[in-house]
Amino acid sequence: MRERIWLNGAMHAGFYLLLAASGLRLVSRHELGPRTVASLAVGGLLALTYTAGVAFWTRLGRRRVVWLGGVAAVWLALVVLAPSFSWCAVPLLFLCLRSLNARGFAVAAAALTLVVIAAQLEIAQEADLSLVLAPIGIAAMTAVIFWELQRESAARQLLIDDLISTRGTLADSRHRTGVLEERERLAREIHDTLAQGLTSMGILLQAADRMWASDPALARAHVRRAAAAAAENLDEARRFVRDLQPPALVDVSLPEALARLCASAGDDTELDVRFRQEGERYPLEPDVQAALLRVAQGALANVRDHSCAGTATVTLSYLDGEVTLDVFDDGAGFAAPTPAPGRGYGLRAMRDRLAEVNGVLVVESVPGEGTGVAATVPTGSLPAVPHLAGARTRDGEDATGRMEER
Fold it and tell me: What pTM did the predictor assign?
């Protein structure tokens, strides 16, 4: 668009320069007689007509062809009076290209070229073939240049339209991707918090119902623990709205949050959960702390629901360049279990959550010897660790599918 504005300005300036040069040539070579005065008057009319069209170009719309015909008629009358004005045909040829279709332009270009040839033959003292070939060559070169400029402009506009369309498509794709990622994040949050809390509440309330007649005191204790779990889940639900860190990490460190988790993990079962910290504690990013806490919650939920274990140990290790979280239980272990209906999101949610902080998850289990879940997250400016495609058992077999129900 910028190039077209400059081109239009250059052609308009060229028209006025050629008109002024022809007028000066007329005055310098002819006496100021009636014919000369008439030629100058018609030249002034041509300038006014041309200027009016340029000034009201946008408003003319489809009437530009009528205006162009008027300009051509005034110019033709001027050439009849003074053939030296014939070279104003070059800017007029440009106007024809802008205003007419291909067939109309061809007719107009031929007519303008013939007028220029006739005018040059009228001025020349001797007929010369160059007087015929030169106008034809100039007209041909002008037409080719203008056509090529128009073609490039159309191609550029098409490319711009394609880029705009592609940008819109890319924006839509990013939006859809963001929506899917947010849904996945919320699914993990709900699985790691609300779903597990509701499961715990259900177990407690079922136990209270069974013991209500035989042991009312213990039944009421189960109900109180269920109420506490409901309050904790309410905090988690409010966090979804506020998009804050897990309540367990508010004003406490990760080791303290894990210790509290282990202390409360066996309240509704006979599971004994112990917590250990190894290495000297150092600051971790909030996302890393949240991911490790969620992994511990998910792993202990698996132990409680599937392992039939008596004890479990959660170990948080601060190492050089990485922090690890290990959850071991002495339960039944597994070989190739069949996923329970409606389950199977736990391990995938752990892996996805760790992948967001460049961490990996390894699961090891042997039937009758318990299960170990190990999460490792690099700390500091370390390169991203590739996402682990599947967990491994101690004998080297792939256990990705075998633990999905956990």
Answer: 0.42
